[in-house]
Here is the input.
Amino acid sequence: MTSDTGTPFDGNMIVKNVLHRYTISQTDLCQKLGYSREAFSKVVNGHRALSVVKAKEIALAYDLDWRSFYETPADRFIPATGCTEGLFIRNLRQNWMVKCPKEWHYNSEFYVICKEGYEYNEYTYVITKKSVPFAYTKQLNAWTLYTLKDGSKLIGYADGYLDSEGKMIRFYNCETKAIISVPSKKIITMQKGRSLLPPVDQK
Here is the structure.
């Protein structure tokens, strides 16, 4: 489909919707940021893509999230995969939505910290889905997800061997302050932590 001026129409009306949602005048915006009114009208009407540079300029000027110009609110939320109350992961007892970049939806797992009374209560671990074989000398980071032979999972980091033969490993979670020991032979894989996200308003 093309416009009557021959410009390809990509159907992207998010820019217009964002400006309307925040009651931002297109004319005032162009004057404030020095944009061509004619050129920006093509962006607003979906005939030209909004560059990331301009999206960030607008977001800075109007105190917005620049990603709003590329994703709907629903695109930025995804259900959490599980919950950790110490180191071990369990299923969530409620539907917990996590706000994060859309590209993380496809390559990450999400685990909420559900231990009440801790500083990081309701923060969320973002863990990459890619797993590698466990190797104590090749630890990934402090928010690593480990999978054990019995299928259970824990989040933290290997804090050291508890014996000279390396049969037992101490694991520590720096957010929940939990400590446990696990037989080395029971640890199968590990997945790198990508981020620790703060709580968001679920309303």
In short: The longest strand covers residues 187-197. The CA atoms of residues 59 and 66 lie 5 Å apart. The first helix runs from residue 14 to 21. Residues 13-70 form a domain with the 434 Repressor (Amino-terminal Domain) fold (CATH 1.10.260.40).
